[in-house]
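Lab notebook, bench 4. Still working through the backlog of constructs that have no structural model yet. Next entry is a single chain of 242 residues. Request: give me the structure tokens for it.
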Amino acid sequence: MAIVAANPPMTLNQRIRSDIEAKILSGQWPPGFRIPYEHELMAQYGCARMTVNKVLSALADAGLIERRRRAGSFVARPHIQSAVLQIPDLPSEVAARGEAYAYELLTKRRRRASRRDADVSGMPQGELLVDVRCRHLANGRPLAVEERLISLVAVPEAQDAPFDTRPPGSWLLDHVPWTEAEHRLSAISAEAPVAALLEVPEGAACLCVERRTWRAGITITFVRQLFPGDAYNLVARFGPQG
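Model written out:
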């Protein structure tokens, strides 16, 4: 008879980290949430400060939490960036430019993922999702048309989120942590329906930004944003690396 070795039990350090990670990745502790202070974790797990400190340092190194001197530790707000591009929250970016931001929800519906959805988003065909289409404006001028799919398996609360008054991207950043993201940029010609929404001639050059985010290997959202060619600049500053 073959003897199968049992998995070794987790160390206390591993258990504390696993518990905290589970709360963050499940969304129970959203971005900005203050996690228990060191002395609270020490009391909860009956361990030394050094053990707790090592766990929190490891979580900070992994980018899941931010440690602030004399304030405590907080679930990190994710930032989408690459070596050549950073894409901030659109309302924040418009405000930073000194312009008035506005948002319009065009459609929102709950449905199941099609084969095409599965191909572009990575969500399994047949999975429940929220399909959102909206428009962003800056100083009354169309800035972007957005098409977004949000997995209801990963984010069930998205079904009742207030997307009629708040952009889905901003809501996701504040409520749903993610662990991995990718984006793709391309130039396309505006087809008639999009051209009408962007108030540009049909066939006008547009910037297309596609982005997908995951949490623990599960797709959270896929978004496609179309910007008029003269309305959005991509700027990156970098230096040589040794």
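Notes after review: The CA atoms of residues 20 and 45 lie 12 Å apart. The chain has two domains: 12-75, 90-228. Flag for follow-up if needed.
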